[in-house]
Amino acid sequence: xxxxxxxxxxxxxxxxxxxxxxxxxxxxxxxxxxxxxxxxxxxxxxxxxxxxxxxxxxxxxxxxxxxxxxxxxxxx
Amino acid sequence: xxxxxxxxxxxxxxxxxxxxxxxxxxxxxxxxxxxxxxxxxxxxxxxxxxxxxxxxxxxxxxxxxxxxxxxxxxxxxxxxxxxxxxxxxxxxxxxxxxxxxxxxxxxxxxxxxxxxxxxxxxxxxxxxxxxxxxxxxxxxxxxxxxxxxxxxxxxxxxxxxxxxxxxxxxxxxxxxxxxxxxxxxxxxxxxxxxxxxxxxxxxxxxxxxxxxxxxxxxxxxxxxxxxxxxxxxxxxxxxxxxxxxxxxxxxxxxxxxxxxxxxxxxxxxxxxxxxxxxxxxxxxxxxxxxxxxxxxxxxxxxxxxxxxxxxxxxxxxxxxxxxxxxxxxxxxxxxxxxxxxxxxxxxxxxxxxxxxxxxxxxxxxxxxxxxxxxxxxxxxxxxxxxxxxxxxxxxxxxxxxxxxxxxxxxxxxxxxxxxxxxxxxxxxxxxxxxxxxxxxxxxxxxxxxxxxxxxxxxxxxxxxxxxxxxxxxxxxxxxxxxxxxxxxxxxxxxxxxxxxxxxxxxxxxxxxxxxxxxxxxxxxxxxxxxxxxxxxxxxxxxxxxxxxxxxx
Lengths: 76, 552
Fold this sequence. Notes:
The complex is a heterodimer of chains A (76) and B (552).
Chain A: H1 3-15, H2 21-25, H3 37-51, H4 57-62, H5 66-75
Helix pairs in contact in A: 1-3, 1-5
Chain B: H1 3-11, E1 18-25, H2 30-43, E2 48-53, H3 59-64, E3 72-76, H4 79-82, H5 97-117, E4 122-125, H6 144-159, E5 163-165, H7 178-184, H8 190-204, E6 212-215, H9 226-229, H10 243-257, E7 261-267, H11 270-276, E8 289-295, H12 299-310, E9 317-321, H13 324-333, E10 338-341, H14 347-357, H15 364-383, H16 386-394, E11 399-404, H17 411-419, E12 423-424, H18 432-440, E13 444-453, E14 456-469, E15 472-480, H19 489-500, E16 504-506, H20 515-524, E17 530-531, H21 533-539, E18 546-550
């Protein structure tokens, strides 16, 4: 697992403390009932803080899985 | 604190009695709620935290409909709460009418706060974000409408019973996140939400304030070296450009008025110090300084003697000196004591020093503190010898007044409970809401004890509370100020209880600091749990007080 993935997992676990590492790495809106709009905004803020980036509002709305956050970080 | 850290703290499993908070704001609370939970968890590690929030856009309604009993209420006001047209998310055309509309809304908010503040601590923050660009005036100029709105807000701040967060404490850094406000209704950058939460919570939780300040003299209380420059050569004035020392002296007077103990630890010639302290232009009142340790022995010895004279722990004391070596030495000897370098001409130094001792209100006991310590010296010296203590107390003309009753609540009682470490039955601290809940239990009794003798008035110095149990009485709370030691007031308290109930039981818990209580119970009730009248009569030394009781 890369450092980037580890840090992203830390963000997910801060928002969803019940997830273990592998569950966090597979998390998505469809798999996780607790993932609502508030969780999306909180995740986005945590990821912005951890990686020192700023996401656009449009992008945040499209973030619906661990993978989508990871892809965004890879694109930067 | 960072958001991830706050989330981890806020979401961690927790146990303990619930601390129930209302976070009243007109926006989506989002990260502010997280920050509030995290700071409360850190401030109240033995409690579980629940935070209730209100409806979006209806701060006044949230306050008006808050019927539950909260342990604390945090009210976070922003411009949109006065009128939606003033908010960024719903910015609209604004004219003079907005002032009367805002006044009506603010009146509702003020009444809601007043009703809640009757029964629970309330902390209020005034708008921290810039007004949306709804006025024609450029931002560097204060618009008349905005000025009128601020006038209303400051009028509320001046009259409310809530504690109001000083707008300048949050600094001038960026606070606003328009992107998240438009997207989710949450208007703050997390750093701002974190600072806001910390500031509000500090005002509603009981805090351990510093009780004493020990200061150096040369290059600290005054500019110059007394031994070299002589009493007339030291200065604290405009002419010598040493006025900062006068400000420091002025601050010390202010602290003394608030009951803070001020002592001197200086390597100096005692005779010269006496002369310097009689200079008529001295700003500090010499009677505010007690004790004065001026000699050539190590300063840590002076600190030790001062702490003994004050009878308080080093962790309640700040030591100020310009000499880093002395500070280091003091820190090594008293690791719990805060050792501060005197920073000449640094305004922040004075402000930060003041804030370590800051109090919302000053009570009669605060003004009596130094005088009673001076008067108590004779008592403390005699306490080492029972025969001379008997003689001294017999001639002390002591009066102990026991004020029974729970209403109206006496704020000094809660203050004493939360600041007393040594003569404290179990060290349990109470929030204002916990305390009010305790008093509202029909079975509980409360007595506040006042004392005076020919050495001076000590004021309200002890609190006892508990409940009847079988034919006896269980003491659940018992604290007494260290200023009142060696006067056998604690014996008189037991006598009072045993005149009415037999036996008296104690909900005693050992703490790191309650050695004096432990020693007293070991003497009077060796099992630490209960005492009967006959045992008390056998063990109690002679009491000479005139005892007066009122209420209950």
